[in-house]
Amino acid sequence: MTNHYYFLVACIILFTERQYLIIAKNSVDDSSSPFRWFKHDNFDIISRKMDQANPENCETMSEADLRLPPTSLSQLPQYNEIPLRQWFTNRSKLLHLHNLALNRAFFYSYILQRLDHPTRDPQYLPSLMYYYLSSSADISSGPNVINISGVFMDTNTTYANWYELKDINKTLPLFAPLARRLDNWNDEMNFLRIPTNSTIEITDLGAGPNNNYTASWYKNNPYIRDREMGIDFIPDRRGTAPSKNQYTTKIQLATISGDPIEELENTKFYGPNAPGVKETFLPVRFTRPYYDCGGTNRWIVSSVAALTDFMPRYSNITRLRGPRMIGVVVQSMDFYRIDFNPCPPGLGNPNHYLAGIARCKPTTLCVPLPGFGFKRGGYQCVCQPGHRLPYEQNGPFRGVDIEAATEEEYRNNFDCIPVGWREVIPEETGMKTKLERVRRSLNEQSNALWNRFKAPSLQLLNTLLTTFELFKQNIFPTPPSKLDESMLIDELLEKPLKITNLDDQPLDRLVPGYRTVSHLLPLEQNDFNLTYTYNDNDNHDDDDDNDGYYNNDSYIIINKVTNTNSQYQFDDKKKRERRNVDTPFYTVGVGTVFDADRYFEVQRLIAHVRKVTSQNCHLMTPDQLILPGEVSYGVEKQFEMVGRTALRLSHFLSAYYQNNVVGELYGSLKTGFPINRFQLFGEVFANVLSNFDIVSSGIFFDYQMFTDHDGTTWDLFAPYAYKPQLATQAVEAIDMSINAYRDYTEKSWFRTLKSRWASSRQSLERITAKPFIRSDVNGSQLQRYFTFPIYYRVPHYEEGYWTQPYFDCNGMVKDWLITYATPFFGVIGEEKALRFMGVVTTSIKLTSLDINQCPQSFYTPNFFKNTAKCDFRSTYCKLIPRHYFLSGSYKCECRQGFEYPLNDRTWYFHGEMMEREYQLMLAGKPNRYELLRCRQGIASGLTYSTLLVFGLINLLMMVIYSV
Question: What are the UniProt keywords, alphabetically (predicted)?
Fold first, then answer.
């Protein structure tokens, strides 16, 4: 009886729970819910799968449950596509992840093959702490970018020089130094319990039980084997030829006194693959997103690159040795920080798992936005061509607003309005050839028909503008700087035109703002793109009347001799109508939006950069080889990851020089290895080879700060690597302590950083590293390092120094460069004080930098600001990224209440078109500059009756005045 009673109670409980679940489900699916229009999509599937994994249950979950679909990531960087494609800010972190894995693969491949002598070189190879602190520097230099860094060696491929072993061919079964960023809110030394992201745990994943990360049963190793993602580097089954590329290095060394050593040091080594455009075996692969169970316990994405060495390493039988991939370098970051493109699949958005989840309406286009990571709303909806925004909408529809809208709000909003009466792009046809067309003469009387209708037409225009003030802006959009008034006032038309020869004019009058950049090369006529846009075959009547441009009240003839009878020809009755183009600046509201003086300065500077080359740079003055610092505006954001490459090396050198004690020995474990010149040259080689943007990199030691492996202290030492011209698999280096370049300590970037850190180092960041090492050679278990934890102080990225653009005429690159420099520090001397030791640099080409010509505040240090040629009464300026160092890298989009008038497949005016038409107008050539503006959004509301009334009024007025 009792058993039946308990069974009945259990049935009642189960029935009640089921009813509650049904009620809850019905309440969610209730048709009255304002968010019922949201349909489940792939984003919901991934989110649900990610929520299921946690530290408590991940060990019992299957491998499939801990990994996301391979297409969860899109537009991944590929080595053979990086120099051919434009990479925007939403892929800068993934690109850094790619380059950093390649960087460490190049370094370890170079140093292991460069130091392969069985008796002389083992002591110079990277030590245990070199591996550990290098991985730690990868993380500390990239907050919010890199969270895991490690090197996973294949089975029995690690020759540990840090153990005192009698057998030189003794190898470690497995070796995997891995660094992870820890959440230190509960750390014993964090008294405030505030996370700082400055605590790093370093461990050997190859030590301890169940440590075979290369085995197929090892669940959490997608970086070792995932053939669907192309990851199958180790064990190496490809042999010695197909997957190994040979690289060439050349080093110019110097003696301790600075004399060059005549014999160059040439080295060839096998490194990561350098595939062609159509090859598929890439040097760096990305894993699918996976859950790092037992580690960071987060969903992460890793980049994987293979390192190469000769195997067997030490053998007298040469034919047995060959290049082999002996391990992989792994760099990881949080999946939540990676942007995805939610827009529909297309040419610029290959189909992937999260494509097409944006909720833009058919009258709009989807545009992805950077910085959202893995969450909804990372897009905006712009109007389709032929549509405009409603009057109440300021800017495109934001994705975050659409995702938060109810069904009623979504149904009644977020639509664009069709544009009526769109204009056709003007094209002049039927032009007469040079032989058929009658040349115009300035002393000829104008047509009698125009003289007859000139006065009535002007009066009619004034009457219409006065009577129909409501439609003034719609029919006749007001050009900048009162161009409409110049059409109506006869005094301007009666003003005589003066003609002046270019040779008689001072240059500071012809080029506004000339005095500001007077040290640059002069601006010439061929520096402008004055291509006739309507008909390229038209000769414009020998261009006798077009070889010039207007400046104030004068028409400047370029390279022409002034006619001696010009005073007789240009009297009050026989004149050319003056074009009103001299607009120095004008304002809309508060702030200057266009500066004509600065516009010509920009054109002159861009022309100067183009003209100065390696062939003529020695003819320039020192001032002509240096540009103003404002020219490099924005470089600290656009090339932040290039700067962080130098910062990574700075952090590593600081960590090593602050914690390494030469000769330190713990039993059979030797940790006190000094850094030698082979390793330093390898580091700068890796910086240059791994990043297409970096053209040179160097480590510049201060006076008597470098001590080589033999105990010799050098006065100066500076390994500097650079890319030779047209070389893809070769890199050259020089010791900049050579007599010809020994003055690097007097360079501005070196003196600035040294003086900044001479008296105080309080602002340096303190990094805490917690290393765990293997207890013996075989890796039976893990134990704490003998010094636990270890600390080192490093600079932030913002404390580095970006130089002003300069031409490296006497250097190795011989191009326009911008250099990022960051210091490193060490504990030097008997006093064991933290001291400035030197500077690490990376350089990029100036021509890789984007310029921003849009309006900005007066305090913004941008040389190119306020030079965009948009009509700011009806449009606003927006930067177009990745157009590099060229004028016109912007677009003019319509302001609120205005619409794009032309019938084409875009919704904005491109900056290159604006620049070209403006320069044609300055030269007096046919142009359509005054047409490139938006009109007020009323054309779709104009009816045929309204247009008929205006047509009848115009016809009536012409008939009245013609009688």
Answer: Cell membrane, G-protein coupled receptor, Glycoprotein, Membrane, Receptor, Signal, Transducer, Transmembrane, Transmembrane helix
Looking at the predicted structure, is the pLDDT value of residue 942 above 90?
A: no
Considering only CA atoms, which of 658, 738, 723 is closest in space to residue 688?
Answer: 723
Residue 861, helix vs strand vs coil = coil
This prediction's pTM:
0.82
- 390 pLDDT higher than 70: yes
Q: What's the CA gap between 358 and 354, in Å, rounded? A: 9
CA distances from 428 to 424, 431, 901, 926, 927 (A): 12, 7, 19, 10, 11
- The pLDDT value recorded for residue 554 is 37
Pairing of strands 585-587, 592-595: antiparallel
**Positive or negative CA dihedral for 722, 726, 731, 735?**
negative
Alpha-carbon distance of 420 to 940, in angstroms, equals 4
State the average pLDDT over residues 590-616: 85
CA-CA-CA-CA dihedral for 899, 902, 904, 909, to nearest 10 = -70
Task: Using alpha carbons only, give the angle 74, 77, 78 rounded to the nearest 5 degrees.
Answer: 115
CA distance 838 to 256: 17
289 vs 597: which has the higher pLDDT:
289
- Give the sign of the dihedral formed by CA 747, CA 749, CA 755, CA 760: negative
| pLDDT of 498 | 41
Contact 784, 815 (CB under 8 A): no
CB 507 within 8 A of CB 524: no
CB-CB contact of 55 with 291 (8 Å): no
**Residue length of the chain:** 963
Question: Is the confidence at residue 814, as pLDDT, over 60?
Answer: yes
What's residue 482's pLDDT?
34
The distance of Cα 311 from the centroid of its chain, to the nearest Å, equals 40
State the pLDDT at residue 669: 87
Give the tokens for residue 9.
């109670």
Tokens of 67: 């990994």
- Kindly write down the DSSP assignment for every residue of 309-369, as one continuous string: EEESSS-S-GGG-EEEEEEEEEEEEEGGG-----SPPBTTB---TTTT-----TTEEEEE-
Contact between 614 and 771 under an 8 Å Cβ cutoff? The reply is no
Can you read off the two tokens belonging to residue 680? Answer: 């330093």
Copy the structure tokens of residue 608: 């100067």
Answer for the pair 887, 898: CB distance below 8 angstroms, yes or no: no
pLDDT of residue 956: 67
Residues 231 and 222 sit within 8 Å (Cβ to Cβ): yes
- Tell me the domain boundaries of the chain: 89-338+635-848, 340-418
- Cα–Cα distance between 644 and 623 in angstroms, integer? 30
CATH pick for 89-338+635-848 out of 3.30.450.20, 3.40.50.2300, 1.10.8.100, 3.90.550.10? 3.30.450.20
Q: In Å, what is the CA distance from 555 to each residue of 163, 501, 508, 569?
A: 83, 9, 16, 15
Task: Say what angle helices 92-114 and 640-659 make with each other, to 10 degrees.
Answer: 50
Q: What is the side-by-side strand order in the sheet with 890-894?
A: 875-879, 890-894, 908-910
**Per-residue pLDDT at 821 exceeds 70:** yes
Check residue 227 and give its pLDDT.
86
| Cα–Cα distance for residue pair 329/52, rounded to 1 Å | 29
Task: Say whether pLDDT at 294 is over 90.
Answer: no
Query: Which pLDDT value is given to residue 487?
Result: 33
Six token digits for residue 44: 């919901």
Write out pLDDT tens, residues 11-23: 676 666 665 555 5
Please give the structure tokens belonging to residue 765: 């960041």
Mean pLDDT of 552-578: 39
What distances in angstroms separate CA 637 from CA 643, 719, 851, 882, 890, one per listed residue?
A: 9, 27, 12, 13, 18
Q: Is 537 exposed, middle or buried (0-12, 13-18, 19+ CB in 10 A)?
A: exposed
Rounded mean pLDDT of 695-717? 93
